[in-house]
Amino acid sequence: MKPCTQTLVAQAKKGDAHAFATLYEEIYKDLYRFAYCTMEHSEQAEDIVSTAVLHAFEQIHKLRKNSSFRSWMFQIVANECKKQFRLQSKVIPYDMAEDFSSNLYSVDLSEHLALKQAFSALSEQERLIVGLSLFAGYNSREIARYVHKKESTVRSSKKRALEKMKQFLDDTQP
């Protein structure tokens, strides 16, 4: 993490809202991509990131290491995603076709419908593992602690999930 970023975190921990806003601006797109790819719905992703940011701003004084801000933010977003998955299991799911046809934020993945469909074909656990790895940059050990699995299980799950996505993409190509 850049020294400037660590300074901003220190300022934010002292209640500086402008410093926190600057930190948030640096990682918003990555947080949104992660939430969107995990949840598959743009509105949910926006809500999750908003809720996570509010929670983080209120709790930033509890952040132990300034250099851990980015991973701490992704952890909060991942927790919000898990909370939404639990709530969704009690509710009728969204119609995916409606969501894909809506106007989404212009992020790299939103331009590739096949890739989004391949990602959505994964299970909740697989999306979480792939998302934490690819978008948040977590390694197998960190993901394993979060999902309460062995590192080897996380690696094999990630490999199988990526193979599923590749197979899906191969099957959908003309």
Please, could you describe this protein's structure?
The structure is a single chain. With 174 residues, the protein is an all-alpha fold. It is built from 9 helices and no strands. The radius of gyration is 17 Å and the shape is globular. Mean pLDDT is 78; it is low at 90-111.
Topology record:
Layout: H1 3-13, H2 17-39, H3 42-59, H4 69-88, H5 96-101, H6 113-120, H7 124-134, H8 140-147, H9 151-172
Helix pairs in contact: 1-2, 2-3, 2-4, 2-7, 3-4, 6-9, 7-9, 8-9
Uncertain segments of ≥5 residues (pLDDT<50)? 90-111
* Straight-line distance between termini: 43 Å
Structural class: mainly alpha
Mean pLDDT: 78
Number of helices: 9
Profile the largest sheet. Answer: none
Query: What is the molecular shape?
Result: globular
Approximately what portion of the residues adopt beta-strand conformation? under 5%
Q: Share of helix among residues?
A: over 70%
Jot down its keywords.
174 residues, mainly alpha, 9 helices, 0% strand, globular
Summarize this entry quickly.
The protein has 174 residues and is an all-alpha fold. The chain has nine helices and no strands.
